[in-house]
Amino acid sequence: MNRRNTPTKEAVLNLLLSSRKALSQDAIERQLDIEINRATIYRVLNRFCEDDIVHKIVAEDGKQYFAICKKCEDQPEVVQHHFHFRCLSCDSIECLQVPVEYSVPNGYEVQNANCVLTGTCNDCS
Amino acid sequence: MNRRNTPTKEAVLNLLLSSRKALSQDAIERQLDIEINRATIYRVLNRFCEDDIVHKIVAEDGKQYFAICKKCEDQPEVVQHHFHFRCLSCDSIECLQVPVEYSVPNGYEVQNANCVLTGTCNDCS
DNA sequence: TGTTTTATTGCGAATAAGTTGCAATAATAC
DNA sequence: GTATTATTGCAACTTATTCGCAATAAAACA
């Protein structure tokens, strides 16, 4: 299943790269100049996730948001789990450079972390 | 808007009290002996949330799960934000007694935290 | 105890997010 | 240039949650 380069893929990737925020499918659809089908956007995004180009966050609104996997300065090798911040005022989600730290009971094995803080961001407070 | 006691409310509350896990609407509906309408279950649960009897978790499946606000031994006054664990094997969500710790950039104000770790629980590993 | 008030419920319909099957299109390899 | 098959668009579908409305039933009160 080799990947192909398409205008759609390019457009979505560029949008995500230029965005400071995590974007939902409908935000992406709105912000793109070219018209791309809803289902296609999801498929492109999910492929990006499979390829670890993008990570998916699910917020308390139950919606999926997608953000480029930027590597943290301190740990260039790993894109570790970090907190996300959802501002209720401007309704945007961004990645914080704050690693998620936790311990789990014996026998538990963590594969993923989905952590979203909610409140008011600097721009809105 | 005074609250009234109803069989429905009782039943849902007792179920949540007796459950070690956070429950979704459909899990509650399935586990109850009495027949309660879907919309009603949601309304009861949301009222519990408003009254801080129950807290809501949204998992990466986008679904809402509800759990009794048990107070942690260490900080009996406050039900502080804690991690949740979702086991992909037995598909259940539970509250961990692990507080969520974080810092946020200047000017950010956190009102809530929704943190779910995903993986395999002790029973399934 | 009977009556009134209004919170709660059930029902059905609506909404919204995300997925899927399928046929058409278009990258890429040869 | 042709063949292969990844990608796309479309429409339909699924699933979770919400909402309006009329009926019901707690709770307060006479």
From TrEMBL, chains A, B:
Pfam families: FUR. This is Fur family transcriptional regulator, ferric uptake regulator. It comes from Maribacter sedimenticola.
